[in-house]
Structures are given as structure tokens and as C-alpha cells.
Amino acid sequence: MNAYIEKVLNEVRVKNANEPEFVQTVEEVLTSLSPVIDAHPEYEDNALLERMVIPERIIEFRVPWEDDNGKIHVNTGYRVQFNGAIGPYKGGLRFSPEVNLSVVKFLGFEQTFKDSLTTLPMGGAKGGCDFDPNGKSDREVMRFCQAFMTELYRHIGPDVDVPAGDLGVGAREVGYLYGQYRKIVGGFKNGVLTGKGRSFGGSLIRPEATGYGSVYYVEAVMKHENDTLAGKTVALAGFGNVAWGAARKLAELGAKAVTLSGPDGYIYDPDGIVTDEKISYMLEMRASGRNKVQDYADKFSVQFYPGEKPWGQKVDIIMPCATQNDIDLEQAKKIVSNGVKYYIEVANMPTTNEALKFLMEQPGMVVAPSKAVNAGGVLVSGLEMSQNSERLSWTAEEVDSKLHQIMIEIHDGSADAAKRYGLGYNLVAGANIVGFQKVADAMMAQGIAW
Ligand code: GLU
């Protein structure tokens, strides 16, 4: 590995010793940049990597709110504005008890390269709160969102930072957050958040975008491999918005998702999650707030595996759409022994670095990285920003065709970059290189301002 990368990585490990998720993602990105850093000695002279691994700004704040029984709770909110070199900060908000600074920093770092990959001018940010929306009443969620925005509003804006949803933050939460923002600031402000409802500036296809985009990416992989999606079986993890969009698009293209997972275990449906009834039921399960995938097994009389992950099932394609570190080395070995050819990350950092390395070493296996595969979500958010600033609304076909076209560009651009640096069909390194290069060019051009 390049000595400059090694040095920066060591500093990151020491300085962020209490932030394992963040260190993990920095290791994953930087270790694949060796050929680029070798070709650009001026980066070291400009301390480019040292600057890139520190967020431009971290905002941490107190969020007090009152539950339905009049009891006061206090949560910790975050917004990490990681890198604004190529455009306004952009990235989601995650509400989950697992949120902490390490998680938000890892997501913000990833987001910087993901947003760069979309080809649109968006910098990287992420935020969230250690608040658990599961089991809360609608009014509690509303009061919490209002309390959260009462601090966040002063740090965001259409030219500054444009938040959106992520785990635990869907259309309902975005609506409440936007309502409070508008009340405080008193203007449309180009919608400020993306993922808004259709009636107040939301884009068509935004709810479907991450899932659809991931399947468009898989189509591009298939084309590269002279293979086809039709007839393939797919193991999905998660059962939220992303898994829903993926299941729908897979069904449309003649493939079938056969597993879903939740915190309680996973379900296996050999007939596939392909009918409208089954796909719509995923939305119902999410809206119920029960957070249990067993409900699907009960409703459609299929097998439920409590406490297990779906990676032992023999399928053609694996698409983890849940959360980080869903697949460790042991799970990865199961996947390989089942002869799976396509390992397509969808959730952010679903694979431990050890498991990722192992999977990438398997001859003939195609591994695709989440920052490219799931970029369709933020990409359509970027299209929502364009529509809001122009006071226009594009048709579903227009948005979908842009999404489709850019997902193919993301795949092809990554494949080309890896090839150019002699790395073969390495989509992981290719995505890191393309995402990094644009941010690096912008930072170099802007001098040592940040
Ligand atoms: N949270 C999503 C992501 O990870 C969407 C972000 C956005 O639309 O800004 O890309």
C-alpha cells in the first residue's frame, strides 16, 4: 500500500479509536486508492487525505421532548457536514437507538463519495438521533421531530445543507420536520429537505429510487457478465423502503426476491415476493411499527427462521438492504460455499472489511459496493432539489429514466476506472476511485481553504 495512505490511516486509527464504524469505512475507502495516490504526489504536499478524513463541521445537540404521558425524554441529535467541496451538504437523517457519533461520521464519509458518484453537485453529510421511532405514537414522533428541527434548522438551508430520510426517517418524519422548519423560517426555501410528500414538492419515484436504482445497477452488472436478471433468485435482507423498491423492480424484470429479514429473524418464500399483494404488505409491515418480519410468514404461510440471517439460503444474488455489518466472515463463507456469484451491497457498509476482502478474493465472484449501488436514493433527491428550485414537477417516466441512465453510468464509470488502473472488474475500488477523484479535484482547485 502507498506509504502516504498508510500514514494517514494510522493517524485515523489512533485519533478515532473510540469510533470503530468510522475507522472501518476510512480503511475501506483509502486502501483502494493506492494507484491514484501514487499518480498524484501533490496530494500529500497539500495534506489532502488528512483534510478529507476530518469532517468540515460536527454539530451535536440536545433534543428534549415530551411523551404522551407528560414524561420528558432527552436524546442526542447530530449533523455531520463532512465535505462540501462539490456542492451543498446532502445526506439523510437516521433515527435509531444505535445512532452515535461514530455511526454518523461513517455514514457522512461514505455519503461524500456516494454523492460525488451521482454526477450531481452535492457534498456529503449525515445526521440523526438516538431516538427509536418504533413503538412511539404518531404525536410523539411529531413532537420529537419538531424538537429536533428546532435546533437543526439553523444549520441547514437550500444552499447549505439539504437533509433527507434514512433508517427510521420516512415520509411521515420528513413531513413533520419540514413543517417545523417552515414555521420557524417562514418560507419554502426550495423545500429544504428531500423525500417530501407529493403535495409539497416531493419528487415522483423518490420512494422507489434506492431500491429501483439498486436493481438497475444489477442489470448493468448482468450485462457486463453476459448474463440476465430474468429467472434469478435473490436473497434480500431488511424489509423497509429499500427492500420494498428492490423486490418490486426485481419482480418487474422477471427475477424473484425469496427472503426478507428483520431484527427478529428472516422469512423464506420460495414462490418469491412477486405479487402486488406481497409487495404492498411490506409497506404495511413497516407502517405498523412492530418491526417484525415474522408477520409476513404468518400472513403468507411461509417459513420463518427466528434469530437467523438469510445468508445460508442457496440463491443467485445476495442483496443486503438492512444495516451495517450484517455479513461477517462466517456468513461470507456460507455465501461462497453456496456458490453465489453476485454479492451486491445495498445497505451502507453491510459487510465487515474482513468479509468484504474474503468475498472479493473469490474467483468469478462479482462484488458491488453500497456507495454505488444505493446511490439512486440520493440521486433522485438531487433531482427533487432541481425540481424544487425550478418550481417544476417532472413525470415519473422522466425521473425514472434519469435514474436508470445515471445508475448505468455509475456502474460503467466504476468499471472503467478500475480497468484504467489495472485492477480488473473491481467495482469496489472503481467506485472509490471515481467518487474520490471528483472531490479531490474540487478540493485541490479551491486551495487550502478547508
Ligand atoms: N439516506 C439516503 C442515503 O444514504 C438518502 C439520502 C438523501 O436522499 O439525501 O443516500
Describe this structure in words.
- The structure is a single chain.
- The protein has 450 residues and is an alpha/beta fold.
- The chain has 2 domains: 186 residues, Leucine Dehydrogenase, chain A, domain 1 (Rossmann fold, 3-Layer(aba) Sandwich), CATH 3.40.50; 157 residues, 3-Layer(aba) Sandwich (Rossmann fold).
- The strands form 2 sheets. Strands 9-8-7-6-10-11-12 form a 7-stranded mixed beta sheet, sandwiched between helices.
- Strand 11, helix 14 and strand 12 form a beta-alpha-beta unit.
- The two termini are 26 Å apart.
- The mean pLDDT is 97.
- The site of glutamic acid (GLU) has 9 residues, from strand 3 and helix 16.
Q: State the name of the first-level CATH class of the largest domain.
A: Alpha Beta
Q: Which band does the percent of strand residues land in? A: 15-25%
Q: Structural class given helices, strands, pairing?
A: alpha/beta
Low-confidence stretches: none
Bound molecules: glutamic acid
Q: Residue-averaged pLDDT, rounded?
A: 97
